[in-house]
């Protein structure tokens, strides 16, 4: 939106001031993330920029922290654990969340608001409270310090995301399509597989990605519930900062930033696809 | 009106199907959503094989509910529904083999036109080659042979409508249900589609149950029309019968235009009755829905059955004051004040025989007793 020619001094000030303010917000959000990326290539084992780095001298940069990362069994274990916990929790959260959203979208479902609120609560209740509660409950049933324990806890955190994204997709879903499928001879299972699922898939996938990211960078519950065997990437970074200050975590952080950007791009592309399909839905 | 419904109801329940086994039979069907009020009250209806039956009625009259019960998307609270002699109340929708065209078409937006049409064949595990052949055939039938690869969103409303019809027919069901399928189309397209659906029906010989609130649509397409009101079939008859011989005041006013004159029966014999109106004029009419002297009644008279300057032998002749003339091309809609009723409409054909009327003029109007039906009050 260009500045109109009749704009007075006040409007001009507002016009540029607003843009500068927005730029500052972006800087505030992005700078802490961007600043670590060059630092992860530091030759020196410090968390500060060296003179060589500032003069862009190639001698100031190296891949040594990345190598340290790849060659560390602790980090490789952490990645493996994060993937096991993340993928399993995502699968559980996606299945449960999609089913819940489908049920909650039916008009004849009683107490919809109440049930919805209950299922969304893990997102709203402060994490530390959930974590403490889970610690005591899981300890008493023998799930603390086990993979199933961490996976179930993360699935509980991820389910609300799936419910919300799938519910949003279902708002635009034309329920006469499932009736049409039935009238054409499709059993309820076939109708779900061929009609409902393809149309709500964008919501399911973006919900799954949110659930995965939630699990992937979750630390509070892991601190409470995970034993040595279940150390995830965030847990390893936590000890990396507290115990052995090594720029390796900068390399890990950079890799994670790239990973998150890839995931978010996927979500955005899916959202556009879903909007295209939505536009196709009959009025 | 309520007292007469029972008699009409029992009249329509007589099967028009030649054989004992009618194709579709509703027997004492009731439907209630809340367990208190009946949306459909004791419905009895027989539909013959190959018939085009329209359920016509205002919204909330129970016609769509009946269609949904037949399709299997609603359960009857009471009574039974039979298809080809078999009870279908306990058969799930996908096993009923009934084609259905939905109000909003319900085309699958993520599939091409051809994939939409192939869907019912695929779920029936029909061989690929045969699917392709049948999809092509049905596309040609609805004149969309070149559009198989389009997505539904790329089609116009009329084209989507044709795809929906084709999809309901492609698996060769013997019964096809249509739920106000032309409601979203503009007037010209709607009329064109009415003829096309009628021709498809005649060509394929399928049984069609059609729901609409549009009376001209019902008159154009149907073999028989069931007029619904308040969960009860008010009259079940052919289009001509329904228009010429409405059995009660609701049907008379719902189908076509009519002049309604309230009065009291003064004399009654088998073929003829005299009805006294509020202003004192006595009208000779055909007794349809009156039982005895002193009954309150509504006289129903079609505007095109009223003559200006009638022959001397006409049953009813009155002085009328012309109130308003509306030029409509093929006829002139003339509002007159006659027998104390100033909402009386006469359709005067636009032809040379009829001289020019002028507002304020007084003319003689008349109609035969046969055209003036004494219905329930």
Word description of this protein:
The complex is a heterodimer of chains A (283) and B (377). Chain A has 283 residues and is mainly alpha-helical. Chain A has a domain at 73-245: MetI-like fold (Orthogonal Bundle). Helix content of chain A is 75%, strand content 0%. Chain A has helices spanning 9-39, 51-54, 64-70, 73-104, 112-124, 127-140, 147-171, 176-183, 188-216, 220-225, 233-242, 248-280. The mean pLDDT of chain A is 87. Residues 1-19 of chain B have low confidence and may be disordered. In chain B, helix 3 (113-122) crosses helix 4 (128-141) and helix 3 packs parallel to helix 5. Chain B is elongated. The N and C termini of chain B lie close together (6 Å). Chain B has 377 residues and is of the alpha+beta class. Chain B has helices at residues 2-12, 63-71, 113-122, 128-141, 157-169, 187-204, 215-221, 239-244, 249-254, and strands spanning 24-31, 40-47, 52-56, 78-83, 86-87, 98-101, 175-179, 207-212, 224-229, 232-237, 259-268, 273-277, 282-287, 296-301, 307-308, 316-327, 331-338, 341-349, 362-367, 373-376. Chain B folds into two domains: 2-97 and 174-249, P-loop containing nucleotide triphosphate hydrolases (Rossmann fold, 3-Layer(aba) Sandwich); 257-376, RNA polymerase II/Efflux pump adaptor protein, barrel-sandwich hybrid domain (OB fold (Dihydrolipoamide Acetyltransferase, E2P)). Helices cover 25% and strands 33% of the residues of chain B. Chain B has nine helices and 20 strands. The chains are: A mainly alpha (283), B alpha+beta (377). The A-B interface holds A 174, 176-177, 179-188, 190-191, 194-195, 198-199, 277, 279-283 and B 71-73, 92-100, 102-110, 119-120, 123-124, 151-153, 160, 167-168, 171, 177, 184.
């Amino acid at each position: 939106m260009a500045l109109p020619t009749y704009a007075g001094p006040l409007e001009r000030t507002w016009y540029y001031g607003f843009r500068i303010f927005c730029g500052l917000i972006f800087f505030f959000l992005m700078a802490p993330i961007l600043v670590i990326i060059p630092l992860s290539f530091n030759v020196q084992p410090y968390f500060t920029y060296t003179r060589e780095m500032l003069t862009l001298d190639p001698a100031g940069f190296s891949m040594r922290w990345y190598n340290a990362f790849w060659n560390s069994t602790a980090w490789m274990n952490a990645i493996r654990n994060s993937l096991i916990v993340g993928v399993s929790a995502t699968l559980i959260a996606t299945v449960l969340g999609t089913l819940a959203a489908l049920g909650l979208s039916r008009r004849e479902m009683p107490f919809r608001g109440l049930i919805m609120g209950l299922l969304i609560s893990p997102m709203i209740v402060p994490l530390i409270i959930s974590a403490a509660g889970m610690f005591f409950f899981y300890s008493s049933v023998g799930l603390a310090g086990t993979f199933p324990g961490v996976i179930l806890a993360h699935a509980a955190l991820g389910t609300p995301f799936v419910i919300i994204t799938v519910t949003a997709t279902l708002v635009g879903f034309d329920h006469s399509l499932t009736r049409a499928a039935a009238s054409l001879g499709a059993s309820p299972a076939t109708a779900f597989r061929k009609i409902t699922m393809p149309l709500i898939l964008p919501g399911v996938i973006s919900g799954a990605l949110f659930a995965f990211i939630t699990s992937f960078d979750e630390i509070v519950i892991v601190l409470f519930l995970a034993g040595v065997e279940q150390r995830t990437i965030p847990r390893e970074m936590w000890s990396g900062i507290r115990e052995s200050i090594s720029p390796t975590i900068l390399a890990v952080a950079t890799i994670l930033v790239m990973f998150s950007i890839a995931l978010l791009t996927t979500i955005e592309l899916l959202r556009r696809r879903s909007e295209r399909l939505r536009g196709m839905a009959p009025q | 009106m309520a007292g007469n419904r029972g008699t009409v109801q029992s009249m329509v329940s007589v099967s028009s199907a030649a054989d004992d086994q009618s194709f579709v039979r509703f027997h004492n069907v009731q439907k209630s959503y809340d367990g208190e009020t009946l949306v459909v009250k004791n419905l009895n209806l027989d539909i013959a094989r190959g018939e085009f039956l329209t359920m016509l009625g205002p919204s909330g009259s129970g016609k769509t509910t009946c269609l949904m019960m037949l399709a299997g998307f609603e359960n009857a609270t009471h009574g039974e529904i039979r298809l080809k002699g078999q009870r279908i109340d306990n058969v799930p929708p996908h096993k009923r083999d009934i084609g259905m065209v939905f109000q909003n078409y319900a085309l699958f937006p993520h599939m091409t036109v051809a994939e939409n049409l192939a869907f019912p064949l695929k779920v029936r595990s029909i061989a690929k080659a045969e699917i392709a052949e049948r999809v092509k055939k049905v596309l040609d039938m609805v004149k969309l042979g070149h559009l198989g690869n389009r997505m539904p969103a790329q089609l116009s409303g009329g084209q989507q409508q044709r795809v929906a019809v084709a999809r309901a027919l492609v698996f060769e069901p013997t019964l096809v249900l249509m739920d106000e399928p032309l409601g979203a189309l503009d007037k010209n397209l709607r009329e064109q589609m009415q003829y096309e659906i009628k021709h498809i029906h005649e060509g394929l010989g399928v049984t069609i149950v059609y729901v609409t609130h549009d009376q001209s649509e019902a008159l154009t397409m149907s073999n028989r029309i069931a007029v619904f009101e308040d969960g009860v079939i008010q009259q079940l008859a052919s289009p001509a019968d329904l228009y010429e011989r409405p059995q009660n005041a609701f049907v008379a006013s719902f189908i076509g235009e009519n002049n309604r004159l309230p009065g009291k029966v003064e004399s009654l014999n088998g073929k003829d009755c005299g009805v006294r109106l509020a202003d004192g004029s006595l009208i000779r009419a055909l007794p349809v829905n009156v039982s005895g002297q002193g009954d309150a009644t509504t006289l129903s008279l079609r505007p095109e059955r009223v003559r200006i300057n009638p022959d001397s032998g006409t049953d009813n002749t009155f002085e009328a004051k012309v109130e308003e003339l509306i030029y409509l091309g093929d006829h002139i809609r003339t509002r007159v004040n006659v027998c104390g009723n100033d909402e009386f409409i006469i359709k005067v054909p636009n032809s040379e025989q009829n001289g020019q009327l002028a507002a304020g003029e007084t003319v003689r109007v008349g109609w035969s007793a046969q055209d003036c039906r004494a219905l329930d009050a």
